[in-house]
Batch of 2 targets.
Target 1
Amino acid sequence: MNIVVCVKQVPDTGSERTLKAADSTLDRESSDALINELDEYAIEEGLRLAEAHGGEVTILSMGPPKASESIRKALSMGADKAVHLVDDGLAGSDALATSEAIAAVLGRIGFDLVILGSESTDARMGVLAALLAERLGVPQLSFASKVETDGQTIKIHRQADYGYDKVEASLPAVLSVVEKINEPRYPSFKGIMAAKKKPVETLSLADAGVDPARVGLAASASEVVSFAKRPPRQAGTIVKDEGDGGGKAAEFLAAQKFI
Amino acid sequence: MAEILVLAEHSGETVKKVTCELLTLARRFGEPAVVWTGPGAEAGRDRLAEFGAAKVYVAAGEEFDDYVVAPKAELLAALVAAGSPAAVLVASTPEGREVAARLAVKTGSGLITDAVGIGDGLVAEQSIFGGAIVVKSRVTAGTPIIAVRPNATTPEPSPGAAEIVAAGTDVSDAAKGARVTERVVQEGGERPELTEASIVVSGGRGVGNAENFALIEKLADALGAAVGASRAATDAGWYPHQFQVGQTGKMVSPQLYLAVGISGAIQHRAGMQTSKTIMVINKDAEAPIFELADFGVVGDLFSVVPQLIDEIQQRSGS
Ligand SMILES: Cc1cc2nc3c(=O)[nH]c(=O)nc-3n(C[C@H](O)[C@H](O)[C@H](O)COP(=O)(O)OP(=O)(O)OC[C@H]3O[C@@H](n4cnc5c(N)ncnc54)[C@H](O)[C@@H]3O)c2cc1C
């Protein structure tokens, strides 16, 4: 099975994130970068499926040159090779433009199964699987907490508010996973050494056959009008429980008309 | 006046609150027209009328619920092409955002998700990076498609005709790629849905074990609230994963959020920081969650919470 796992490098959520004043895009220089956590679950699922059914796992990442760190990490977990879509023309791409570029690369390299983390910790839109499925014309299997395949058909549990839906499709398909699905492995020392020799193909927009007019900030289908730091919350009332804490909490709730 | 399409979220005949919220918003920008998929529209109609729906486009075929997301996007795209609405509003739930995303591709439109408000000129307000930054943006291509976070607007009644109009009945083969074979409903049945609830009571590592979560549930039930949990609690297996609140869990924005035995790590705050009122019960006065608290009690949850439940029950006379 030819499996492609999409990996995004994101700013560390533990560090403060800001937008750049000049163009209202994410200031990626000012914060530490790491692999989007949910993508590690996607990589793990890809590796498990390849181990069970044979085949190769290719990492696909779109991002600045620095994203190569995240690609190496993915390779050190055990993926076979990588494709890095990197081009200044991609900077500022919104979700729609991003999906256009990634779909173009997927169309070029081919796949039986594309696996994504169900959302990234920076944008949190959770729509890339839907966008790719729409653009590629293949089934959308998103928010999977469980996956089974025989190489022809694929069955998942799709997480829902009330529990989950059992969903079935035939391959090729786009899959996105939630963190409940597995426990990602840590790269071994051997894995880290091996990753250094694994092939990483770098593609520009021209290489990937993407029309530069359809990606990047200028092609964005929405624009930021303004942004500002949220005003700090007003300091609240903090009481120490002296045997009456529950009562005081109830008084507050009553005053606010919650009870 | 141009139409504003509102995709209804409903469970059978019951219209979800977020749909009334979307109608309340839509009325400010045009004539609200609800798009309803699957059975139940006739019975749900009164509620839609109460919140100002002028029309209800109904695609009653069960097929719309038998396949993942794509049929709804296809139906909306057909209605957009036919009626040139001024905007399409959906609930910013995982599925709502996916419908919006596919619709954006189909119609060559821009997409804004997780809006917490919409102002003049359909400028949407979003709260990003765990609520640290407020961004205002607008769609510049095609038909604005905006996914609005549940609980962001107070639903206000205003009567409408809610005229039922039959809309497309067939789902194309292209939209039948991923078939739903069964819906499995897990615990939490009687409580409101986490992302929809006006009140959320969440428990964290301080709760100590799975059995003690009964206390959190009891408090939630006294308030008519949904139950949430921190990742420490879901990872430990004390509470099911789908109730996790935070960066890798659900985003909630209720009128009242009660954090019990939760320290307030940045990843937890990312999922609840935009709650209107926040109440904290934690024995450590230094816990960062107190920075968000409108009201906080420094104390042991095992004495504060039972007392609080008693007081609530006394006050509500039960
Ligand atoms: C990439 C990433 C993503 C993450 N995503 C999420 C997420 O989505 N959601 C999430 O919640 N976390 C997430 N986390 C984890 C997060 O960093 C914290 O570890 C987690 O939120 C801690 O949960 P907690 O507050 O319940 O536990 P703790 O931090 O251990 O806090 C427990 C609190 O309970 C209090 N307490 C203990 N006993 C009592 C008592 N008897 N009475 C009153 N108070 C008591 C303590 O004083 C303490 O403040 C993520 C972490 C990473 C790295």
Target 2
Amino acid sequence: MSIANKISRILDYLKRPEKTSHFAKERLQIIIAHERGMRDKPDYLAALQKDLLDVIAKYVAIDKEAVKVDLERKEGFSVLELNVTLPDSTL
Amino acid sequence: MTKIIVITSGKGGVGKTTTSASFAVGLAGRGFKTAVIDFDIGLRNLDLIMGCERRVVYDFVNVIRKEASLNQALIRDKHIKDLFILPASQTRDKDALTLEGVAAVLEELSKTFDYIVCDSPAGIERGAQLAMYFADSAIVVTNPEVSSVRDSDRMLGLLSSKTKRAEEGQPPLTEHLLLTRYSPKRVARGDMLSLADVNEILAIPLLGVIPESQAVLRASNSGDPVILDKESDAGQAYLDAVGRFLGEEIPHRFIEEKGNWLKRIFNLKERETV
Ligand SMILES: Nc1ncnc2c1ncn2[C@@H]1O[C@H](COP(=O)(O)OP(=O)(O)OP(=O)(O)O)[C@@H](O)[C@H]1O
Ligand SMILES: [Mg+2]
């Protein structure tokens, strides 16, 4: 091992490990905001979204991100909204 | 009016049972007649932490199934008067707890007790749901660690929708954050989420911070809840938290790193000159 190599290893050893708590905070803020958005939605929504995606994918090549299912509660009824962005080439 | 408190967390092993035991002792110590119930069916542990494991004859499920009366099943605490423990059953039948059964037990306890502390099991299954269902207050026990914080937020969602109060449109239960196993040293090093971080993310009122403490293991070894160890940091932190729960204004402690030896000497010198 060269001297330079040795010195660099010693320096590595002495270096403090990188701080990680800010990663924890950032990741939590993102995932919790997402999960709070899903909180009031019924459990079947995610499954429905997946099934719809599979059906549509049978006919057109779509990208997973291109399907959005949303449930909006209004007084006395709910609106299930389905948004699919089809690529230009398929039309 | 009897108050029902649930100690909950979602994630396992964060300190719910430790907290239930100390809170129950703390409330009884203030003169309130208190019952603490172990909802962790199949994994009874509150009895060990309270030091009454050898006096368990009947349990929560026996009472629900009317195999024993509530008075027969309640164990009088050996440390403090006015405190009673209702142990969990060790049955493997996960349907042993029923909504009607729990309702009946809580109703009967409400006739004579001031506080009922419900030690929730981990997870979001039946035991956890029933532990929170009738609650007037929830203490959400959280460790400064990503999965615990996320699970706590999930429990907050359930507390606001899957409780009797929520379902009947009554005023919501009061939520309290209890941050446990906190290590100011690791926070200062940047290795641990800080109190401010967790507080900002969960955004519910802070009841207290319990430091990571060797006194907790000592307390469970001997079966004397840590709040009774008045010399210890964790014991004092629990005493403070109980005081705050009862509406007292008590400044938070054990949230800063202890001064290093240099600072301590310096402080000592300063004090001497005063
Ligand atoms: N402040 C603390 N300092 C050090 N250790 C602690 C502290 N609080 C709890 N512990 C330890 O953490 C472990 C789990 O605690 P406890 O049994 O109270 O958690 P729990 O949330 O009830 O677990 P479960 O989800 O299994 O019911 C125990 O070994 C306990 O001694
Ligand atoms: Mg427990």
